[in-house]
Every structure is written in C-alpha cells, then in structure tokens.
Specification:
InterPro entries: HTH_MarR-typ, MarR/SlyA-like, WH-like_DNA-bd_sf, WH_DNA-bd_sf. GO terms for molecular function: DNA-binding transcription factor activity. This is HTH-type transcriptional repressor NicR. It holds the Pfam family MarR_2. The protein is mainly alpha-helical. It has one domain: Winged helix-like DNA-binding domain superfamily/Winged helix DNA-binding domain (Arc Repressor Mutant, subunit A). It contains six helices and two strands; from the N terminus they run ααααββαα. A two-stranded antiparallel sheet has the order 1-2. Strand 1 and strand 2 form a beta hairpin. Helix 1 packs across helix 5, helix 2 crosses helix 4 and helix 3 packs across helix 4. The longest helix has 22 residues. The protein is elongated, with a radius of gyration of 19 Å. The two termini are 36 Å apart.
C-alpha cells in the first residue's frame, strides 16, 4: 500500500456495478425462460435460428459467437425438446442444416416477450434517453474490445 493512500474499494469500479446489475438481470431472465423449459443459451440459439431459417450449424455458430461444438450440443437439446430439427443433405451426409420446428417458431415470440418484460422490470424506470445512452455506452465498450461472443451464461 502506498503510504497515505487506501486501496480502491470494490464499489469504486464500474466493472463491479456492471457485474452487480448483470447478475440480477440475467438471473431473473434465466428463471423466466427456464419456467418455459429452455436455458438462456438455448434461447439465444432459438432466436438466431428464427432469423437464419434452415442453415448450416457452422453459420449459426459464427452468427452467435458460439463454438460449433456448443451449437451442436444445443441443437441436440432443442431437438430432444422438439424445438429444432437437423437434416442431412441427400448428396453429402456430412452437410447438415438445422431449423426450428413449428413449436420452436411459436416459442420464440413468447421468450422474446419475457426478454422485453425483463428489460422493463430492470430498466423501465429510466428515461428513454438515459436507457438509450446506457445501451450506446455498452455497445461502444463491446465494439472497442472487438467482442463477438454472445453472453449466454
């Protein structure tokens, strides 16, 4: 310790407050989606698959910033839940596409409403300009560091 200067406290750091808020926001959302039978990681993949339509798992992995192995495991879990289906190419059995089932396509808007509700619960008290500024600042941090992986845990 430098003579006369106390070390910074946890509360002095923006990262501390980001983690504090993030933990509460993400745990609340996790409970909401788990009540619908999926994990947050599965929700992220479901949402990406809705946008992608029938697509190669590697394309989806690149889109969401997950490894191909993680996407494969999540697709398998979603398949067991009858929310996704995997198809092989007739000409090349190694080439596969994955897509949502009708049940998966119906579930995504339900989960999106839960995400919207979670946002309102935690950020609804902010003035629209303040909320927009917060999102812009966080997006700037993400861009500055070149982060691509989506936060799913």
């Amino acid at each position: 310790m430098v003579a006369g200067k106390a070390p910074s406290t946890l509360e002095d750091h923006a990262g501390y407050w980001l983690r504090y808020v993030s933990n509460h926001v993400t745990h609340a959302f996790a409970r909401k989606v788990e009540a619908r039978g999926v994990t947050v990681a599965e929700w992220v993949l479901l949402r990406a698959m809705l946008e992608a339509g029938a697509a190669n798992p590697s394309v989806i992995a690149d889109t969401v910033g997950m490894t191909r192995g993680t996407v494969s495991k999540l697709v398998e879990r979603l398949s067991r839940k009858k929310l996704a289906v995997r198809s092989s190419s007739e000409g090349d059995r190694r080439y596969q596409t994955v897509e949502l089932t009708a049940a998966g396509r119906r579930l995504v808007p339900v989960l999106a409403r839960l995400a919207d509700e979670n946002d309102r619960e935690f950020f609804g008290h902010l003035k629209p300009d303040d909320r927009s500024r917060l999102v812009t600042l966080l997006q700037d941090i993400v861009r500055r560091h070149g982060w691509k992986d989506l936060p799913v845990d």
